[in-house]
Design brief:
50% of the residues lie in helices and 7% in strands. The protein is an alpha/beta fold. It has a five-stranded parallel β-sheet, sandwiched between helices. The radius of gyration is 24 Å and the shape is elongated.
Length: 348
């Protein structure tokens, strides 16, 4: 398992104290910086029987082969049902899979950990995201951290550590994984990312692993379409037709694969609007760096107050985007607000 270069330091610090690792470890940091990857690498190293000091798991011992096959009896991965592979997710009669870690999962984990380790060594639990627990579930996990079984390590992964119960955080040794430097992230994305991954990383404010994941779903191509079509909106553009085109996009195969929906489109529009404000202020765009020249041209004659008003209006649309009463009307409303903003600079 090869880790990105920016994880070398936390990996080195963790593996330097393998024999002194606490029972609870909290890995926190922004989305897409590799927290889960680091947790999996550490779990692999703890379960490996042949790795040398500081080296990653060997990949060939009995423990590594079982882990790679997904059948290691002493490795427990706890995630919401919505994040489980289809072949391992529990059967459901109806409804959507839960996005929360349920108390039943923690109770099942407790029962498993009451038994002796199958391989006679360490046991490792990876919980991701640890903040996807309600207070009852978190309290059940707290009992495990207060009275941990012997030679058991619980690795909690989260992008929102403040959502965890303070008592839960206090029982763990915290490791904050920072955002990688732009050069390191760019070099990794150039090698491992898909089409548009670098631009997606910028749109996300960093998060190279999340950008690479989204690029693999075709979101990079979707972002190119968004930039092209929003950038072409002018005072005389038919945004009603564009709203209809985007509604069809959300239902088309490529749109479904890329997760194109009202929340994503309104989020992109909000970031685009913010970059227009930044361009007008001369501070440089943040999310759509490749469109800085276009944006400078778009805002040349638009008053700054009007751009701020546009951002605030798109922000209102974004807040209700998860539950639009009518997607077509919501798209029309959003695009008309944006068009009126740009047209204000062309009025006599």
């Amino acid at each position: 398992m090869t880790l990105p270069a920016w994880l070398d330091k936390p990996w080195g610090d963790l593996t330097a104290r393998l024999e002194r690792l606490p029972h609870g470890i909290l890995l926190s940091g922004p989305v897409g910086v590799g927290k889960r990857l680091l947790a999996e690498a550490l779990a692999a190293r703890l379960l490996c029987t042949d790795a040398k000091d500081g080296a990653p798991a060997c990949g060939s011992c009995t423990g590594c082969r079982l882990r790679l096959a997904g059948t290691h009896p002493d490795l427990h991965v706890v995630v919401p049902e919505a994040d489980m592979p289809e072949e391992t997710a529990p059967a459901r009669k109806s409804g959507k899979p839960s996005t929360q870690i349920l108390i039943e999962q923690i109770r099942a984990l407790q029962s498993s950990l009451e038994l002796t380790a199958h391989m006679g060594g360490r046991r490792v639990v990876v919980i991701d995201p640890a903040d996807a627990m309600n207070p009852f579930t978190a309290n059940a996990l707290l009992k495990l951290l207060e009275e941990p079984p012997r030679a058991t390590h619980l690795l909690l992964v989260t992008s929102a550590p403040r959502r965890l119960l303070p008592t839960l955080r206090s029982r763990c040794q915290a490791w904050a994984i920072p955002q990688p430097e732009a050069d390191a992230a760019g070099a990794w994305l150039a090698e491992a990312g898909g089409a548009g991954a670098t631009r997606l990383s910028q749109l996300l404010g960093g998060s190279p692993l999340e950008a690479a994941r989204l690029a693999g779903q075709g979101v990079g191509e979707a972002l190119q379409r968004f930039e092209r079509e929003v950038g072409a909106i002018g005072p005389n553009s038919d945004v009603i037709a564009l709203a209809g085109s985007w509604e069809g996009w959300t239902k088309a195969r490529d749109g479904l694969a890329a997760g194109i929906d009202m929340p994503r489109l309104s989020d992109w529009m909000l970031r685009w609007s913010w970059d227009l404000v930044a361009s007008k202020c001369g501070v440089g765009v943040r999310y759509f760096d490749g469109q800085r020249q276009m944006m400078a041209r778009l805002v040349e004659r638009v008053p700054l107050a009007q751009l701020f008003d546009c951002y605030n209006q798109i922000s209102q649309v974004r807040r209700s985007a998860s539950h639009p009463l009518n997607m077509r009307l919501a798209l029309e409303d959003m695009l008309l607000r944006y068009q009126r903003c740009l047209s204000s600079g062309n009025r006599p």
